[in-house]
Amino acid sequence: MGEEETVQQNIVHSGIQSKADKSPVTVADYGSQILVSLALMMEVSGPFSLVAEEDSEELRKDGAEEILEEITDLVNETLVDDGSYSMSFSKEGILSAIDNGKSEGGPTGQHWVLDPIDGTKGFVRGDQYAIALALLDEGKVVLGVLACPNLPLSSISNPNGSSSGDRIGALFSATIGCGAEVESLDGSPPQKISVCSIDNPVNASFFESYESAHSMHDLTSSIAEKLGVQAPPVRIDSQAKYGALARGDGAIYLRFPHKGYREKIWDHAAGSIVVTEAGGIVTDAAGNNLDFSQGRFLDLDTGIIATNTQLMPSLLKAVQDAIKEKNHAASLL
Ligand SMILES: Nc1ncnc2c1ncn2[C@@H]1O[C@H](COP(=O)(O)OS(=O)(=O)O)[C@@H](OP(=O)(O)O)[C@H]1O
Ligand SMILES: [Mg+2]
Ligand SMILES: [Mg+2]
Ligand SMILES: [Mg+2]
Question: Which of these, 116, 164, 234, 283, has the minimum number of CB atoms within 10 Å of its CB?
Fold first, then answer.
């Protein structure tokens, strides 16, 4: 059994914390943030700016001693097992390492952007999740890495991995102007990937959030109907959807959070460059490119859509028609 799987199984049996916004966080989210931030500190020369999802607030509260101890043990054991860096963390060191990720980002300079576990709900369920790291330079994503430990290496149509000859675990990466690649988590040679070339929506399938609380499944179903998509939605957690889209496992990604939700840059930075470097397009519901230069949040119009160049014009029209219809129906209530 791989180390990621052991951590995943242990966590399902240990405490899952709830943050102020009621979303879940586990020792793995904190542990991953500390390890990636440590790797950046060791590998990037000089000081760096990190915009990351987690902070230490919950861990500094009374009653959090046990989980802080669990995180400290997990991180120190992982460092020993891995052997890349000979160091260990105190509890205070753990808290301050998590808070290395408090940068506000912005339009100038370079900023690393990290979602230490994207799709925490999927992780806890034993389904898809991703570790997503990107680099912003002058407000633009220039590098993205997306590790998906539970995703089949070749295609989601091989869900049982080894029984179908496909390995489990995929690492997507993309550098601006250089294309996108996938490799196994244990280091197979990288393979170039590209989005599918489907140009008739009748043959297209679409990805969306597993959680209906994260994206309006009724709206996406009306968009799919307008386009003439026949296949049922493919619901998987996290930015694994961007990775799967980038290598042509499906043709379209639709994401429409409920009213009032503000998207965070770490939920889309790595995934979006993997898709665009694989030849796809990622926009908001108005057809605008995503703007990563405005700080920790993405300010955008209503939703996020991604597909290939052939399907984008008809997808955008279907999205705008479906939104108009939904708004009209709401105005009649
Ligand atoms: N209410 C609401 N609406 C929309 N989005 C939300 C909401 N709450 C959380 N999130 C963010 O969704 C991230 C998980 O991504 P997905 O929606 O693709 O995953 S899922 O398929 O629904 O599990 C998830 O990322 P992680 O927190 O890293 O898991 C959140 O940033
Ligand atoms: Mg979260
Ligand atoms: Mg996330
Ligand atoms: Mg997360």
Answer: 164
Active site residue 82: no
pLDDT by residue for the chain (333 residues), tens only, comes to: 455 666 666 665 556 888 988 899 999 999 999 999 999 999 999 999 999 999 999 999 999 999 999 999 999 999 999 999 999 999 999 999 999 999 999 999 999 999 999 999 999 999 999 999 999 999 999 999 999 999 999 999 866 665 667 899 999 999 999 999 999 998 889 999 999 999 999 999 999 999 999 999 999 999 999 999 999 999 999 999 999 999 999 999 999 999 999 999 999 999 999 999 999 999 999 999 999 999 999 989 789 999 999 999 999 999 999 999 999 998 898
How far is residue 77's CA from residue 130's CA, in Å, rounded to a whole number?
Answer: 22
- Give, in order, the Cα–Cα distances in Å from 46 to each of 49, 89, 112: 10, 21, 13
Q: What is the ipTM of this complex?
A: 0.95
CB of 211 shorter than 6 A to ligand 1? yes
Q: Residue 213: nearest ligand to its CA?
A: 1
11 annotated as ligand-binding: no
- Nearest residue (by CA) to ligand 1, atom 1, is 214
CB 167 within 8 A of CB 179: no
Ligand nearest to the CA of 19: 2
